[in-house]
Design goal:
heterodimer, A: 113 residues, globular, B: 113 residues, mainly beta, seven-stranded mixed beta sheet, four-stranded antiparallel beta sheet, 49% strand
Chain lengths: 113, 113
């Protein structure tokens, strides 16, 4: 079945460091890919998405590129801030679109000043 | 403003009590979901619905039940709460068309003593 694998955390970085959170997926066809963020005490928010190969999603300084050849959708940010401390989830929906999102297990990021 | 609401945000209750967690959305979405989030952050789909009078069980076996009598309302009920039900419960919705991205409520943190 469809699945998402993301790097295990926790990840601890100093402010202004470069961030990469790896995400790879297994799916048939051409799924749509998402990154969600969950701040402490809140629900999940959509951070960015990409719906076809080579698309780049971006938002709030975060970027991720849909790489079909490596079945990956790694999240990157050039300079993290303390306010980026949160849990990040990679997710996909199969190209049929008629099934719930498949989520990775989440990666906790802590940014220290 | 279109949004998704969950009440209560926090609930502490004794073993054996019947409880209902409320979820409502004003986004006009047909699809709605319930997730249980464990302390390790992983999300587990427990129920979903693709429209009025349609409900399905998710990947994680749950002793809870749901109903979908109105499009905007998707309550989750536990007939007899147990300490093993202690968790964070997240409700989400998504449109029928588009890329099936999901929008999440703020969550209900349930503690069963």
């Amino acid at each position: 079945g469809d699945s998402v694998t993301q790097m295990e955390g926790p990840v601890t970085l100093s402010e202004e460091a470069f961030l990469t959170i790896n995400c790879t997926y297994t799916a048939t066809g051409y799924p749509s890919l998402f990154w969600y963020v969950q701040y402490p005490g809140e629900g999940l928010q959509l951070l960015l998405k990409a719906t076809k190969a080579d698309d780049k999603g971006s938002n709030k300084g975060f970027e991720a590129t849909y790489r079909k050849e490596t079945t990956s959708f790694h999240l990157e940010k050039g300079s993290v801030q303390v306010s980026d401390s949160a849990v990040y989830f990679c997710a996909l929906v199969p190209n049929s679109g008629n099934t719930p999102l498949v989520f990775g297990k989440g990666t906790r990021l802590s940014v220290i000043a | 403003e279109a949004d998704i609401y969950q009440t209560p945000r926090y609930l502490v209750i004794g073993t054996g009590k019947k409880i209902t967690l409320e979820c409502s959305q004003t986004m006009g979405h047909d699809k709605m979901y319930w997730y249980q989030q464990d302390p390790g952050m992983e999300l587990h789909l427990i129920h979903y619905s693709y429209g009025v009078n349609s409900t399905e069980k998710g990947d994680l076996s749950s002793e809870s039940t749901v109903s979908r009598i109105r499009t905007e309302h998707f309550p989750l009920t536990l007939e007899s709460a147990r300490p093993s039900h202690t968790s964070q419960y997240l409700c989400a919705s998504s449109p029928t068309s588009g890329y099936n991205e999901q929008f999440f409520g703020p969550g209900t943190r349930l503690t069963v003593l």
